[in-house]
Amino acid sequence: MTSEQLTSPLRMPRHLFEELAVGGGSPGALAFLARSERARRLLLLRTLLARLDSLPTPLDAPAKAWRTIKAAADRAPVPVERLLLAPQTGGWLAHVLRRLHGTAPGPELWAEAGHLSALAVSAALHAGTEADLRVPLVDGALFLPGLGLAELPGVAGGLSIGRVGAMRGELTLTSEALDVAPLVLRHPAAVPVRTTGETPDTASHWLPLRTLTLPGPSGTVAVPLDDLDPYRDLDDPIAPARLDAEEAAEWQRLFGDATEIVTARGTQGPGRLDPIEIRAVVPWGRTSVLPPASPTVRLSASSGDSYAAMVIARPAGALALAETLVHEFQHSKLAALLHLFPLLDDDREERYYAPWRGDPRHLTGLLHGAYAFTGVAGFWRDRMAEARESEAMGVAGYHFALRRMQSRLVVRTLLVSGRLTAQGTVFVTGLARTLDGWLREPVPAAALARARTAAALHRTEWRLRNVVPTRVAPTAPDTLVFRTDRASWLDDRTYAFAAPSVAPRTADEYLAVGDPAGAVARYADVLTTDPAEPHALAGWIVARANLDSGRVSRRMLARPELLQPLRSR
């Protein structure tokens, strides 16, 4: 792969584009996206190598590392290609290119560029070829991409230089500056997560990368559970955050259950996912099973630089994780498509309402959200079809109704924006076709009512927190004036309204069970102390509208910010 000439243009067949446009994607469509990301990665590697030629470095020249990679690729092309196409390699590439353009911070640039030498050593170990390279050490440690973290004993903290020799799968790591005993590792490799009896990491000075394993039609599928790679995050390099054995085992259990859920009804429609497409899972925010995990995913993210990798804060249950896997893979598909086609002309001004965010968004953010949540709506549509109990049917129906409604609202914003390209119009029209069909599908009445209420609550609170109250009605979304004192806020209603309380106590709980009168009284109690408190005021407005859908209520819902005191921008 390293000597391949990238001269043949990529042309996506129209039927594959249309499969992706409706929110899904056959194995053929996903294979095309993977092929396009491969071509992009090779072009970025070529660009980086050209830029590194003139970079001063105390390490070996980048050309030497690249020759080591090419020699390994000649011997073992498949594992070396997998290494170069890994999401973390993409994250490193993009970050270093940004640094070379002066648009990203980081440690010494030669050290970040020197990650190429670590890639070369990993390639040599995979192929059983030779390597002899200077490498950057951070606190005496060297991360070997796709394999694990080698820690050279006796080396002080900070940045230093080591030397690596590799031959027939054996690694020798020494310090260039200190007279310390070399670290010798025989056949270092990633290891599957063990669900029982894993020995805690000790003074062996080797932390293997763990993998989440699943049975597949052609053998075991191994997905990296990456808590070590410095480029596993979405932006700047980060330190290792090793999971306890128990936390790793919990990830394996939940991941296995979650992937069974997403593959239960196939792999092609919106909301379905073949786990073989996932290339890395990056745990975020916790390394131990204690304190207990949240029922929902508190944070998840992905990046166009790291195709099919997912940063996820582990939830307590497999259903929440399964929803997040679908959500993040939708983002990866769209990011890959945006690398091929200009779907919109975005001025990047953040001025549009996104029903799943607390802040105004630009058009690219809207498109990503619409595509991701169309997949989420499809996920819950499948769960509703599988439900055997009324409670499960109600929860799934609520999420399906809410996400199809919110996604269709954003699709309308995109279609009337005047900013879509010809390909973008085809793409967003495909999403509209999917969502319009789903909007005609029946949902349990109580679940539908809660979804409509939750959607109204979010939009109302968003305007209260973001929009400056002015007496002149805006004529378009981009004429809104936004508050400069706005702050992030947690939407704790979306999931709370999924399953109403059997014994409501709070105003939100009364509203969720369909008792707006009880909710109005309780919201009013809060508002006597702070008449402009956004959460309670949004609830009061929506509850009032549920009691009386007349002209006054409609005006309050349309421009709720007018009920707040006029404030400076």
Set out the fold topology:
Blueprint: H1 14-21, H2 27-52, H3 62-75, H4 77-84, H5 87-100, H6 109-113, H7 115-127, E1 131-138, E2 141-144, E3 148-151, E4 159-167, E5 170-175, E6 183-186, E7 191-192, E8 206-208, E9 210-216, E10 219-225, H8 245-262, E11 280-283, E12 300-301, E13 309-312, H9 318-338, H10 363-386, H11 390-416, H12 422-439, H13 445-466, H14 507-512, H15 516-527, H16 534-547, H17 551-558
Parallel strand pairs: 7-9, 11-13
Antiparallel strand pairs: 1-4, 2-3, 3-8, 4-5, 5-6, 9-10, 12-13
Question: How would you describe what is shown here?
Answer:
This protein is an alpha+beta fold. It is 45% helix and 11% strand. It is built from 17 helices and 13 strands. A four-stranded antiparallel beta sheet has the order 1-4-5-6. The longest helix is centred in the C-terminal third of the chain and has 27 residues, at 390-416. The protein is elongated.
Distance between the termini: 55 Å
* Major sheet details: 4 strands, antiparallel
Radius of gyration: 26 Å
Strand order of the largest sheet: 1-4-5-6
Mean pLDDT: 93
The helix count comes to 17
The shape, in one word, is elongated
Report strand %.
5-15%
Low-confidence stretches: none
Helix content: 40-55%
What can be said about this structure in brief?
By secondary structure, the protein is of the alpha+beta class. It has 17 helices and 13 strands.
Features:
569 residues, alpha+beta, 4-stranded antiparallel beta sheet, 3-stranded antiparallel beta sheet, 11% strand, elongated
